[in-house]
Amino acid sequence: MLLLLLLLLGPQPSGAHPGLKMAVSSKGLDYVRNVVTDCVQEELLTAVIPDIEGKVCIGIGNVHYALSQMEVVKVDLPQPSVNFEENVGVRVEVSGLSIAITGHWRTWFGIIKDGGTFELALFDVSSASLLQLGMDSQAHVSVGCLTCNAQIGRIDMRFHGGASFFLQTFVKLFPGYLKGLIEGHICPLLETQTGKLEDMLATMNVNLHIDPNMIFNLSLTNAPLVQSSNMEMDLKGVFYSEQHPSEPPFPSQDFQLVPKADYMISLGISQFSLNTYTYVCLTAGLLQINITDKMIPPVFPLRLNTSSFGKLIPQLAKMFPDMLMVLQVFAAEAPAVSLQMDSFSFLMSTAINAYAINNTILIPLFTLNLTTQFSGNLSIANEKVVGTLEFDKLKLSLVSSKIGTFQTLALEKVMVQGVKTFLIPALNAKLQRGIPLPVMKGVAFVQPVLQIQQGFLAVFSDVKMRDSSTEREL
């Protein structure tokens, strides 16, 4: 049952503040319980039960027995009680479980052999276990069975066939013997399954592949914090280059996510996490473009040639008459995302290298620095944070020039149109691709709500399990 809560977690410790926080509420735990209960009931009906062999003392000696070809024909599994145990993990209590099994039996007592079929019913099976959550030395989430006890209220077993003289004595003694045998195996079985879960968690890859250029690290930064009403998890939440991963050159900042109990999942995505995304876009060379005259719309007042630019920079047309131009535009540094209460801004510093084209030779002309500020809206679509930007302000300055100094005010006004025409559509296209929300495969968000808070995005949502044939939704 814990697998659905823990598969998001994994390796890579960090002493810095988490870039992402997640909380699973009691409502979310209840949903997992409902889904898992249905699955367990279905799996019990198709479970393969291994043959059982042993011996029972009937006073005059030991009767050897074998139970084989066993099948589960009926299961009645009431909803278990599953609750967070503060500072420990999850307490799971099952009561009232009943199981009906059919199969074949054989006995032998010396040279006397007997056999037939049987019907076995277990009534009021109950168990109580406490699962402890933590983090191991490799910063994987750890899960272990801290306490467990189990008992069977009543067992009813009916034998068909057989006529040997010792059978009746065996029939009287065997159900009680079998009851103790099964009770003794319930907790070891739970411990085995818990161990398999921990092994799975220990080998999980927590790097979510965004595209060929980028991965998103969703590893733990510290052990899960279990409280009476929820479980809170701190995750690294850092984007890395797929080819050349490196830590971002700026620190993470702490933020406080206040979980909402009426949603299954509360998620906080920090401003730091979003800025690691723009940093990877920069280092991967995704924030650059060469602009030629063919890319300029016919209605735009400035053409990319020295004659047109000469109206704003007179010496250019004189020094390099009638030449086409190309602009190499690239981000000078990682764009900065700023999240304030209910507002989102985006600051981008862009370098522009201008060249004249003489046949196939590029002649350097000048370099400009363009600082642009945008504001925008964020929303959730297809389990991704997507956004749109609007232009706020622009500042253009001359960095260097091969043609002498010139004023940039007139060119700045034209650049405003250029930013609106070229840059904003390009950025919005990237933003519409979205940043995926951290969710494991097979899980979908239901009616998520996004809020922009101080320094982070808050997402509150219910979840549903995807299935090839059905979808269970709360």
Any chance you could write out the topology, listing elements then pairs?
Layout: H1 3-6, E1 20-25, H2 26-45, E2 52-57, E3 62-76, E4 81-85, E5 89-109, E6 112-135, E7 141-160, H3 167-202, E8 207-211, E9 214-217, E10 225-226, E11 230-235, E12 238-241, E13 265-270, H4 271-283, E14 288-292, H5 306-309, H6 314-319, E15 324-331, E16 336-340, E17 343-358, E18 361-381, E19 384-401, H7 409-433, E20 435-436, E21 443-453, E22 456-465, E23 472-473
Antiparallel strand pairs: 1-11, 1-13, 2-3, 3-5, 4-5, 5-6, 6-7, 8-9, 9-12, 10-11, 13-22, 14-15, 15-17, 16-17, 17-18, 18-19, 19-20, 21-22, 22-23
Explain what you see.
- Helix content is 23%, strand content 47%.
- The chain is built from seven helices and 23 strands.
- The two termini are 17 Å apart.
- It has helices at 3-6, 26-45, 167-202, 271-283, 306-309, 314-319, 409-433; strands at 20-25, 52-57, 62-76, 81-85, 89-109, 112-135, 141-160, 207-211, 214-217, 225-226, 230-235, 238-241, 265-270, 288-292, 324-331, 336-340, 343-358, 361-381, 384-401, 435-436, 443-453, 456-465, 472-473.
- It has 474 residues and is an alpha+beta fold.
CATH architecture of the largest domain: Super Roll
Structural class estimated from helices and strands: alpha+beta
The CATH homologous superfamily of the largest domain = Bactericidal permeability-increasing protein, domain 2
Strand percent estimate: over 45%
CATH topology of the largest domain: Bactericidal permeability-increasing protein, domain 2
Overall shape: elongated
Count of distinct structural domains? 2
Biggest sheet overview: 7 strands, antiparallel
Multimeric status of the protein: single chain
Under CATH at level 1, the class of the largest domain stands as Alpha Beta
Overall mean confidence score, pLDDT: 88
Indicate the radius of gyration in whole angstroms: 34 Å
Order of helices and strands: HEHEEEEEEHEEEEEEHEHHEEEEEHEEEE
- Count every helix, treating DSSP H or I runs of 4 or more residues as helices: 7
For the termini, the CA-CA separation is 17 Å
Poorly predicted ranges: 1-15, 468-474
State the helicity in percent bands: 10-25%
Q: Tell me how many strands there are.
A: 23
